[in-house]
Amino acid sequence: MLPSETLKPANSMIASLGIGMQALSAVIRTKTPGSPRALMTFVAASTSGLKMSASTADQHYTRFGVPPKGEPVARLMDPVYRRRAEQFVADAVLAAAAFALAFVLRFLDVPFGIPHRYVTMLAGSVAFVAIGKSIVFEILGLHRKWWRYFQLPDLWPVVRAAAVASALLIAVFTLAKPYSYNLPRSVVVFDFLLTVAFVGGARLARRTIAERPDRAMRRARSRGLLIIGAGSGGQMVARELRLNPNLGSRAIGFVDDDPGKRGMSAAGVKVLGPTDEIGAILDRTGPDEVVIAIPSAPGTLRAKVVAACRDRDIPVRTLPTVFELLRGGVQLTRQLREVRVEDVLGRDPVVMELDRVGAYLEDKIVLVTGAGGSIGAEICRQIARVRPRLMILLDHAEDNLFRIDREMLEEWHFTRVEAVLADCKEPERMLEVMQRFKPDVVFHAAAYKHVALMEANPLEAVRNNAIATRVTAETAAASGAERFVLVSTDKAVNPRTVMGASKAMAEWIVEAAGQRHTATRFISVRFGNVLASSGSAVPIFRSQIEKGGPVTVTHPDMARYFMTIHEAVQLVIQAGDLGAGAGDVFVLEMGEPVRILDLARNMIALAGYEPDADIAIEFIGPRPGEKLREELFNSDERAQPTSADRIVRAVRTRPLDPDWVVRSVDRLEAFVTSGDEAGLAERVVELVEERLAESALGPPP
Q1: Helices 54-63 & 4-28, crossing angle to 10 degrees?
Q2: pTM of the model
Q3: Three-state SS string across 87-111, please?
Q4: Is the dihedral of CA 64, 65, 67, 73 positive or negative?
Q5: Which residues contact 383 (CB under 8 A, 6 or more apart)?
Q6: What is the mean pLDDT of the chain?
Q7: Which CATH architecture is the domain 215-339 placed in?
Q8: Do the domains spanning 215-339 and 354-656 agree at the CATH topology level?
Q9: Residue 72: what pLDDT?
Q10: What are the pLDDT digits (tens) for 12-24?
């Protein structure tokens, strides 16, 4: 039992505490609903040993604005209150220890230890200080956080709460004066520092203990993962493997090219060396799997790692790109995917700040034709990130339109969309749509692209790729659009097929429209093959590999330019802000062309097979008019740099005559309307020859 003279100042401090807590509670009650109720439950239960009767407790309930309601024991049966009560008691014990140790440190150099009067002060006030601090911690929300998830940013609330508690401690000892002598200032300083150390340290220790996997579980984990990249992505993978022993894997080391990291540890895992030593590291560590944890890693690095792992039959997976993470879930290890052929193109990926390059679309009305196709759908996804005022999804394929509309709502949570079922070839319907929505920017991605099909159906190729482009461009200009962006292709350069000629005519139409409608910026964006788009080489090869082969390649020397769909669309959006208005043609730089034979071999190897041995490769010969190598510029065009990386302007030495374009398309439309397939094919050849002959004349005098 404490002597009565010790209890008197303590009871005096409790009265002061009531006033202080009432003020503090009133200030932050709106931010912490329910805290005062729980707070007084703890106060009533904890201060009963200091001569507080039940009636006194009820008075304190009322003073804090919380009427007496139920028994404290019954309230503590609730799991939430029980956990907070446990934290309350633990923090009170830690606060008491910090306060006592502060006195010890203050008088550490005194020969006979703590003077008797300060022993009396400590004994009479330690319970008050402990409970008071824990009450402050409760009000400031420290007890609403799980200790096992404590992180370094959570230390700041602990520091703030300890500072508030110290300020109240000074105020009580200064204003209430429970003792005739003052509390030493150095005790307050020591108490503050020790409180932060004890309270924060206890939480950090609890998290450390929680993160230590069971030894039996550690022994059960047999798969070793070697992580390429010791940056934030790699550390996230290593940390999640440590936190989730049920994943059945463990990180055995990092490989990183930063010389400053070599021999160091990150997330508890050692950096073993650079990627130049990947072969030796694989032989030394013998991992069961390799994870490339650098989403923006250049293709050369990925190719190096994949080749080394392939030689040793070690599977490789990679972290997703930013776009894939945004569309996926939140558990990082579940986002790991197999290395794909686009990961090993052998060049650095295009990386840009879409919020910056697409800023011109913010708060604009944007219309995307062919919105359900591969390119159109990706344009919609990326435009949704820059938050336009309204996005109109236009397509004539019902299923495709339905899918992209649902995706915008369910995956991107973008609700400012209108799905419009319409055909770009119909002038009346397109004018109705344009007049209704008044788009500021139009991305025209609707087109037929399969060369063989277009050769067999030339009327539809010209109708959909050329005439529909004229209809869309003219109705956009008539409705006051600010920009019109045509998604074109490198097959439009010196075309030798109906499909290529129809896309060349689309470029001519846009260039002529730019000269005729100066209020609208008309732009064409030309690029090569898009990896993994529907009907392209990659999905065809993948299907053939899954069936056991053979993989069919047209010619050993066939080569094409390739881009990922994310890269192509980013650059298309950026190019939309570059045009001056007179039908500019922009060309995307795609690195060196890729041999289709090499692409086929890479895909077979990535699937775990040996080219030619497990999966046969057959050469079937080029189709009529198919080039071995695509071109990026016509003979009358020269490349001009722009302010954007990876985008150049194709400048004609002899500008197109817009009247010639109008007359030519009118004649083509007459053949299409009459169904004269032979006459159409003949006229297409004549148009291409006319254009080539004119371009050969060089610049006008």
Answers
A1: 30
A2: 0.61
A3: HHHHHHHHHHHHHHHHHHHHCCCCC
A4: negative
A5: 358, 361, 366, 368, 391, 443, 573
A6: 80
A7: 3-Layer(aba) Sandwich (3.40)
A8: yes
A9: 54
A10: 444 444 444 444 4
Count of all residues that appear for the chain in the document: 701
pLDDT at 62: 40
Domain boundaries, the chain: 4-211, 215-339, 354-656
- Say if residue 441's pLDDT is above 90: yes
- Rounded Cα gap, residues 519 and 483, in angstroms: 9
Tens digit of each residue's pLDDT (9 = 90 or more) over 79-103: 666 777 788 888 889 888 988 888 8
Q: From 1.10.510.10, 3.40.50.720, 1.10.287.130, 2.60.40.10, which CATH number describes the 354-656 domain?
A: 3.40.50.720
Residue 678 to residue 670: CA distance in whole angstroms: 13
**pLDDT tens-place string over residues 563-585:** 888 888 988 999 999 877 678 99
Query: How many CB atoms are located within 10 Å of the residue 614 CB?
Result: 14
Tokens of 424: 């770009």
What is each CA distance from 656 to 153, 226, 493, 680, in whole angstroms? 62, 58, 15, 22
DSSP secondary structure string for all residues of 188-252? HHHHHHHHHHHHHHHHHHHHHHHHS--HHHHHH--EEEEEE--SHHHHHHHHHHHH-GGG-EEEE
pLDDT band for position 478 (50/70/90)? very high
Is residue 677 within 8 Å of 459, Cβ to Cβ? yes
CA distances from 505 to 462, 489, 511 (A): 9, 12, 10
